[in-house]
Design a protein that fits this description.
By secondary structure, this protein is an alpha/beta fold. It folds into 2 domains: 248 residues, Rossmann fold (3-Layer(aba) Sandwich); 85 residues, Rna Polymerase Sigma Factor, Chain: A (Orthogonal Bundle), CATH 1.10.1740.110. The chain is 32% helix and 16% strand. The protein has an 8-stranded mixed sheet with strand order 1-2-4-3-5-6-7-8, sandwiched between helices. α4 packs antiparallel against α8 and α5 packs across α7. The longest helix is centred in the last third of the chain and has 18 residues. It is globular. The protein starts with 15 loop residues before the first strand and ends with a helix.
Length: 346
């Protein structure tokens, strides 16, 4: 598991950090923020196609709930994709890794506004990402838009909202349906756990509300778990209990209650299945059969039939899959990325 936390040491161009300020950003709710900071990391350089005059090598990769663009700089992802001769060789591609609104180094409640921070939704995050790519980095076309978990859901929204702005789409560990059923119930348990903690104080806490964050951490552990993997890694009650206690302690150190609330509530506008026919770019959607959040019994793959150039892949459970977290283990699914890049060549 330590490999998940260690930065990649593979030889590809040095990542570069960027911060952009948007004045008077108006959210879908009508709320405003005088100064919105949008952060991203880039690897490589943009290159224009002489024939079209447009950038043809830019790749946008979007993180999941609670994540940042830096999560893709770990060996299990970057060392499989960004190195010389690999599918997204960063000496050839221009990799863009944004921190979505409410995450990482982009503006978020814990920066100071707390519960007075505007109520952002996925549509706001996607619009912010589009501004980073097109307005600030001056990329006029994306070779590929892809994302994991929340980033995967936002990939569907990119395809619907900006259908001609990319050549290919790859959503991972997600579904193009409203967050409802068990998925919504688990999320609501976490949200209510924080809001019902007296120590939350309407978002104006001086110390993190411990009981509420325990609810949140419990939800995260269940949502990201894989039954087979956890049994192999923690085969006794003692081992499982010890792992649980370590995880809770880590979440208590790293989670901020307001940031978490906003991140989970941001999904409330997510209903992409109404506009799937708007997607025109070739799309490959990849899920894992041991994903607690997107299990195969939901049979959501019927929606891919409404995507003109869509393809669905359900990865079987193996010793390498890790439930919802399979989305970041690029070795398992990168062959489908290679196929998509070939299928979407101009």
């Amino acid at each position: 598991m330590l490999s998940l936390l260690v930065m990649s040491i593979l030889a590809y161009p040095t990542p570069v950090e960027h911060d952009f300020t948007v004045e008077n950003f108006v959210f879908a709710s009508g709320q405003k923020l005088d100064k919105l900071n949008l952060h991203c990391t880039t690897i490589g350089e943009p290159k224009k196609n002489p024939a079209t005059g447009k950038v043809d090598n830019a790749v946008l990769i979007m993180h999941g709930t609670g994540g940042t663009g830096h999560q893709f700089l770990t060996p299990i992802f970057a060392d499989q994709l960004f190195g010389p001769g690999q599918p997204l060789d960063a000496t050839k591609y221009y990799i863009i890794l944004p921190d979505g609104i409410g995450h990482g180094k982009s503006s978020k409640p814990s920066n100071g506004l707390h519960a007075k921070f505007p109520n952002y939704r996925y549509a706001d995050i996607v619009r912010g990402q589009h501004m980073v790519v097109f307005d600030f980095l001056h990329v006029d076309h994306l070779r590929l838009v892809m994302g994991t978990s929340m980033g995967g859901m936002q990939t569907w929204l990119w395809g619907e909202t900006y259908p001609t702005d990319m050549s290919a789409l790859m959503p991972l560990a997600c579904a193009p349906i409203e967050i409802a059923g068990r998925n919504r119930t688990v999320r609501k348990m976490a949200i209510d756990g924080i809001r019902n903690d007296p120590d939350w104080i309407g978002g104006e806490y001086k110390t993190q509300p411990r009981a509420g964050l325990t609810f949140a951490a419990n939800s995260l552990m269940i949502m990201g778990s894989s039954a087979l993997t956890m049994l192999h890694l923690y085969p006794t009650a003692k081992a499982a209990d010890s792992q649980y206690e370590r995880s809770i302690a880590n979440y208590q150190k790293t989670l901020d209650a307001n940031d978490f609330l906003y991140q989970f509530e941001a999904s409330e506008d997510y209903k992409p299945n109404a506009d799937l026919e708007k997607i025109v770019a070739p799309l490959t959607w990849v899920n894992s059969a041991d994903d607690f959040i997107n299990p195969p019994e939901l049979e959501v793959e019927k929606d891919i039939k409404r995507v003109k150039n869509g393809k669905f892949v359900m990865l079987p459970i193996t010793e390498k899959t890790r439930g919802h977290g399979t989305h970041t283990i690029a070795e398992i699914w990168k062959e489908h990325l290679v196929e998509l890049l070939k299928r979407s060549e101009p």
